[in-house]
């Protein structure tokens, strides 16, 4: 896909999402970002995109609601006159022991990490068809891509991210006739959570064959590569520094 003058939606624009937004803008893409509580981060992404000379807007959205997902997609398409790219990044990542899990916990994670990706893709497809095709990129996780849940305490997260892989494959098949390519990225050690200790940082780096954390640019480069391809669909690509082979 030639990215010049295309329009994208990124659900979630903190940290990695911010870098992706900037890289898209540098290639001529107008960018809409959604946020729930992170207004400051969304505004920062908008400012960075505009600094690259492209249009940008932030949309407050509750992705756990079906009508909000549809409204978000339609609002972005209306703001830019088209919608060519959807990047489903929004995610809930909370550790909770199995015995402490509630139905509400389960529903909250599945709604954001899996169902919202489906809802945004469904709403985006007509807009993409109107302009000859597009790209949908979902976000899974390296553990789900590797087929085993390495860390206890993340039951709904792991199940949702495994579901994202299945959703990606199914949508790739359904939307191929419309020239809409659907892929997923499964990040590994990219950016550590803010409360990560020095000991934990070193332990993760030591467990990664490349010996380091990847950084947000590693994911952004993969996103750009998928968007520039016109013959890759239904794939889930690990960006984990080889973590899955150790």
Describe the protein.
With 246 residues, the chain is of the alpha/beta class. The protein has one domain (7-190, 217-245): NAD(P)-binding Rossmann-like Domain (Rossmann fold, 3-Layer(aba) Sandwich). The chain has helices at residues 16-26, 39-51, 66-80, 103-129, 142-146, 155-175, 198-207, 216-228, and strands at 7-11, 30-35, 56-60, 85-88, 134-139, 180-187, 236-239. A 7-stranded parallel sheet has the order 3-2-1-4-5-6-7, sandwiched between helices. Strand 4, helix 4 (103-129) and strand 5 (134-139) form a beta-alpha-beta unit. The mean pLDDT is 96.
Short summary:
With 246 residues, this protein is α/β, with parallel strands linked by helices. It has helices at residues 16-26, 39-51, 66-80, 103-129, 142-146, 155-175, 198-207, 216-228, and strands at residues 7-11, 30-35, 56-60, 85-88, 134-139, 180-187, 236-239.
